[in-house]
Amino acid sequence: MRSDVLGLALICAAALAAGAGTPAAREPAQDGFLPATPDQAWSFPRDHWAHPGYRNEWWHFTGRLAGVDDAAARFGYQLTFFRVGILPSRPPLESAWATADAVMAHAAVTDLARGEHRFAEILWRAMPLLGGFGAPPDPLLAWGRSPPGTDGRWSVRLEREAFSLEMEDRSKGIAFALTARPERPAVLEGPNGYSRKAEAPGYASLYYSLTRLATEGTVTSGGRTVRVRGTSWMDREFGSSQLAPSQVGWDWFALRLADGRDLMLYVLRRADGSPDWRNATLVSPGGGARPVAAEDWSIRTLGRWRSPATGAEYPSGWEVRLPGEGISVRVEPELAQQENRSALAGGLFYWEGAVRIVGADGLPAGEGYVELTGYGKGNRPPI
Length: 383
Fold this sequence. Notes:
Blueprint: H1 2-21, H2 28-31, E1 56-67, E2 74-85, E3 101-111, E4 116-125, E5 131-133, E6 140-145, E7 153-159, E8 162-169, E9 174-182, E10 187-188, E11 194-196, E12 204-221, E13 224-241, E14 247-257, E15 262-270, E16 275-283, E17 289-291, E18 298-301, E19 304-306, E20 313-315, E21 318-322, E22 327-333, E23 339-341, E24 349-359, E25 364-372
Antiparallel strand pairs: 1-2, 1-13, 2-3, 3-4, 5-6, 6-7, 7-8, 8-9, 9-12, 10-12, 11-12, 12-13, 14-15, 14-25, 15-16, 16-17, 18-21, 19-20, 21-22, 22-24, 23-24, 24-25
C-alpha cells in the first residue's frame, strides 16, 4: 500500500503541475479537461457537489473556535479536500480500480492556548473503500479513508444546509467533528464567479465563498477533547488552469472584521516577490458583496518568519489598507509556527494559520486566516 501511495503522489503531482505550469491554458480539444468560463450557470446547493471534468477542485474550510466549557480553550482549524483530475473521465474498464480522480485532503488544528500546531493528510485513489465524491441527493460531498492506524474516514457532508466536517489522525493526536451552518449567502469571487489569475487568457477558476458559517462541535488535540463554538469560512474553486508560468505562489487572506464586514484578498506573486495579479472582495454585514479595484487596496509586510523545518522565509504580519472603505488594520499571526508540511504530495509545504486583526487604535478588530504558498526553494504549488 505504501508503494501505491507513493506512485499515486507522483501521478497526482504530475496532473496538478500540468494544470498549473503549462505555458498556455489548454482547451478541452487538446487534453479533454474543461476550462473555467465566464458563463457558468450557478445553482445552489448543487454547486457544493463535485464538478467532474475539471482538472482541479477543492473544498477549503478554515475557522476560529473557542471552548464551550473551558473559556481558556482557543483553536484554529483547517480542512481542505482536493479532487485531482488524473483523466478527464473514468476509463471504460470493468474494474473498481478504474478512476479519473485522486482524493487528497489536508487538515490542521492549532491549539492557540498551548501554542501547538499539528498537521495531517491523506491521499487515495477515488474508488470504493478508499475515497471519492458524492452527487445529489447523496449528502456526501467528499470523503477519504483515514490515515493508516486510524479507523473511519474523513469527510465533508451537506445536511439540511449545514456542512458536517470530520477527520481524525491518531498518530498526530488531532481530530474534529464540526457542523458549519452558513449565516450569509454565497459570494461569487469575480464577475459571475469567474476568477481570473493572470492577464493572459485562460488562467482562471470558478470561485465562490461562504464567509461566515456558525460552527460547533468537538476538537481533539494533544490528548484532550473540547466542545467548541465559533465561526468558519469556506472557499470553493474548480477549474483546469490556475497559475501562469511567471507566478510562483499566492498570499490569500480571509478576514472577518469586528464591524460585520468580511474581506477576501489574494496576491499572486512572481519569483522576485512582486505582485503579478491581485483580487479583493468586500462583503457587507447584510451579505452584499462587491469587488475592490486593485488600486483601492494595499498590503504591506511588517515582518518575516523563517521555518526551522524547511528554511522557508514567510511574511509574518501585514498592514492592510482600503482607504475608501475606512479600513486600516494590522493582521498578525496568532502563532508563528503554523506551517503545513506534506509527506505525500511531493514534499509540498506552505503556511496556513489563524490571524488576529488589530485596528489603528490598537484594539481588537476581527479575526481570520491567511495562506502563503510558494515560499522556499523549489516549492511552487502544483495547483
